[in-house]
Design brief:
Distance between the termini: 55 Å
CATH architecture: Up-down Bundle
CATH superfamily: Formate dehydrogenase/DMSO reductase domain
Structural class: mainly alpha
Order of helices and strands: HHHHHHHHHHHHHHHHH
Helix content: over 70%
CATH topology: Formate dehydrogenase/DMSO reductase fold
Number of domains: 1
Largest sheet: none
Strand content: under 5%
Length: 403
């Protein structure tokens, strides 16, 4: 009774419950009726919305290996307070990817075949094993959070002794399959639109996932801070924002140079829906957020970083969906739009991911392991000057208003 009494219904909880319930109905239909009756996939278009969601989930989970490598390999200890949120984001992302893969399999009961039926010449084989192994690595990395909750200190000591090789393994595995997802499309050059096909698709996938991972850990941390009424590590995120700007600039430079080298830049200026969607993903996910991050006021503002991270995530989602769907379409001979079951299952799983993050962060020491205050000696001096500059300007404005 006490638990029920303490549980308060809110608009978002009701909405999440409805979305997951509808998704559960659609999932039941998918497993009982098959792919043909519940999706708009076909022999001409065998990969669709769910594959795009897998690309998105894996890419957004890149914060796990990015932040973990920064702290444990590069010894940037000032980022320690955001390691656990990054690992949690990655762990949930990979679990959702595994769920979608099971849903997307034509015969999900045979999901265990790659474990015993090896085909080392297949990119899919490499991706499958990387996902399995990296999910195991994430389990080991996140295990101390669960063990601390139940005061099991002996296993934590064991995990700490192997933490460095586990992190190194995670970086290697994640790097391999982040790029390997792009390698899947190297075998279909004649079917993809020139705006998205390239010999360096694996490299582009890797760069973009780094930007998306940084943005996702920013977004999730800001949402958690708002939900739990806690302070965020603004100096750390402001420093990450400068890294994000560099990554976005690198991605844009490589992307445009690749189009020029392949003589594909001309397609950007053609009046087609592909060029429109390409410009949308570039402007929303790269150009606009990069331009915003050039301003000190944006880099040192909670709202500025929050909305900038949303733009990068939206652009990343557009890129992966364009690669998986738009690039493979050829109107009017070969078109595709997901069924309501495909959409509802995807939305339900994404909702479940947000719900899982909320409750894990609420009941486990994801954010409480470290103090919210970051010691000044651990923060970049130039960044501190930026924060002091903004603080001084705000104080001057308040004084003028009082006058």
């Amino acid at each position: 009774m006490n638990i029920l009494h303490s549980y308060k219904l809110t608009f978002w909880k009701i909405t999440a419950t409805i979305l997951m319930a509808v998704g559960a109905v659609a999932a039941f239909q998918r497993f009982t009726m098959g792919l043909g009756a519940t999706t708009h996939l076909s022999d001409q278009f065998p990969w669709g919305f769910w594959i795009g969601f897998d690309f998105i989930g894996v890419g957004l989970a890149a914060a796990g290996f990015t932040i973990a490598a920064t702290v444990h390999i590069l010894n940037a200890e000032r980022f320690e307070p955001i390691v656990r949120p990054a690992i949690l984001t990655a762990y949930i992302g990979y679990m959702l990817v595994v769920m979608v893969l099971v849903v997307d399999l034509g015969r999900p009961q045979n999901f265990w075949h790659p474990l015993v039926m090896w085909n080392p010449h297949s990119v899919m084989f490499e991706i499958t094993w990387c996902i399995i192994l990296y999910t195991t690595v994430l389990t080991l990395e996140f295990a101390p959070v669960v063990l601390e909750k139940f005061h099991l200190h002996a296993p934590i000591k064991i995990l700490r002794t192997i933490s460095l090789p586990v992190v190194v393994a995670g970086v290697i595995l994640s790097t391999l399959h982040q790029s390997s997802f792009g390698s899947l499309y190297l075998v279909v050059p004649e079917r993809m639109h020139p705006l998205w096909f390239s010999d360096i698709v694996p490299f582009l996938f890797f760069i973009s996932c780094v930007a998306a991972g940084i943005s996702m850990v920013m977004f999730s941390s800001f949402m958690a801070a708002r939900a739990f009424g806690r302070e965020i590590e603004l100096p750390l995120f402001s420093e990450l924002a400068r890294v994000l700007a560099v990554v976005l600039a690198l991605f844009f430079t490589v992307r445009i140079q690749d189009l020029i080298n392949r003589d594909a830049l001309q397609y950007v200026f053609q009046p087609t829906y592909q060029s429109g969607l390409f410009l949308l993903e570039i402007m929303v996910g790269v150009v606009i957020p990069f331009s915003l991050l050039l301003f000190r006021k944006i880099r040192t503002s909670q709202k500025g970083l929050f909305y900038t991270s949303i733009l990068v995530i939206l652009g990343f989602v557009a890129n992966r969906m364009n690669t998986a769907v738009t690039s493979m379409e050829h109107w009017p001979q070969r078109t595709y739009f997901p069924s309501w079951q495909e959409l509802s299952i995807t939305v339900a799983l994404a909702t479940a991911g947000f719900v899982a993050f909320y409750y894990v962060a609420k009941y486990f020491p994801v954010f409480g392991h470290h103090n919210n205050h970051v010691p000044a000696q651990l923060v970049d001096r130039e960044l501190l000057k930026e924060l002091e500059f903004v603080s001084k300007n705000n104080e001057d404005l308040r004084q003028k208003r009082n006058l």
